[in-house]
Amino acid sequence: MAVHEIRxxxxxxxxGLLREAGISTAKFRQLTAELGRLLAYEAxxxxxxxxxxxxxxxGPVEIQQIKGKKISIVPILRAGLGMMDGVLDLIPSARIxxxxxxxxxxxLQPEPYFEKFVGQLDERQALIVDPMLATxxxxxxxxxxxxxxxxxxxxxxxxxxxxxxxxxLQAVHPEVDIYTAAIDSHLNEHGYxxxxxxxxxxxxxxxxxx
Length: 210
Ligand SMILES: O=P(O)(O)OC[C@H]1O[C@H](OP(=O)(O)OP(=O)(O)O)[C@H](O)[C@@H]1O
Ligand SMILES: O=c1cc[nH]c(=O)[nH]1
Ligand SMILES: [Mg+2]
Description:
By secondary structure, this protein is an alpha/beta fold. It has helices at 9-18, 25-43, 81-90, 137-148, 163-172, 200-205, and strands at residues 3-5, 49-56, 59-66, 70-77, 95-96, 98-103, 110-116, 124-129, 132-133, 153-161, 177-183, 186-187, 193-194. Strands 1, 4, 5, 6, 7, 8, 9, 10 and 11 form a nine-stranded mixed sheet that branches. Strands 2-3 form a two-stranded antiparallel sheet. A two-stranded antiparallel sheet has the order 12-13. The site of 1-O-pyrophosphono-5-O-phosphono-alpha-D-ribofuranose has 22 residues, from strand 4, strand 6, strand 9, helix 4 and helix 6.
């Protein structure tokens, strides 16, 4: 598994802004979508191209198109929705497969509550989006679900990863590449990433203050 921590100055700048305590819901949403867009740009770097001849105004011309596999964006509810629109800005025709998981605050285990996948997942590149990879449990469960549905090509886009979560995902699904804006220090005793962002879902949806 390759872990791509994106070093682009725009990504470094925006992830820094996102860490500010007291950030408004509007600003958190805006930056999360912008980072989703920048990470999607990086994650699509190796999509294969094919040459196609089209009718241009000046006559036939050979152009390049993305070949083969079509993309399914896979937001993990809720927080993954915050990145989804940014990814859709770049890939507006992508199909969307939704996974609902809620991390139990006591056990830190992901509890599934929703799954709705598009068809032909075996022919699609899945781009899972979730701002936080903490213990890795939610990402591992999502990859498990996608594989059970036949998906064979999966990438994970996250804003912040804990080293513990990367190791856990790597141990179970070594072929899944990660594209992230930051690899942080560690998890605290409550399973939160340090320094991290706090609770990304609550910040995006305005369900908790502070
Ligand atoms: O790597 P893990 O230890 O599994 O933790 C990460 C998960 O926790 C958060 O979601 P949460 O369950 O809080 O749901 P929410 O998005 O609805 O707030 C986050 O968005 C990830 O999905
Ligand atoms: O740091 C963390 C860990 C899990 N979920 C979050 O929203 N933040
Ligand atoms: Mg949450």
